[in-house]
Amino acid sequence: MDEKKKLFLAEILTKWAKADDIATCDGCAGYSLTEHMIYRRDNMLCPECDLPANWSSSFSERNHRRYYIYFDPAQPATRRIQWGHPTEGNPLYRKGDKGEVVNCKRKLA
Q1: For 18-33, what is each residue's pLDDT tens digit?
Q2: What is the DSSP string of 28-69?
Q3: Which residue in 16, 25, 72, 95 is a FRET match for 5, CA 20 to 30 A apart?
């Protein structure tokens, strides 16, 4: 992490975060907001560890939100992208969020 990001994170933690706002994931030992965590089989999981197979996530710099990407091995040239977490019961799940299918541009060797 570069120095500017470290200072920004330190400021956020000092000014706004309370002791119970951030939790540690039992799956990856990473950090997440407590309100975004979910309990599964006596484990507290972050949104990333709670993803089903073939799903990943990324962060939108423009919208300042996480989005979710589904990769279908049968259709490698497309991805389905949505804002809500794909797992029902997850705090970030959005009922009715079907996302949209996008075509991927591949670089030619």
Answers
A1: 889 999 999 999 999 9
A2: T--EEEGGG-EEETTEEE-TTTTPPTTEEEEEETTTTEEEEE
A3: 25
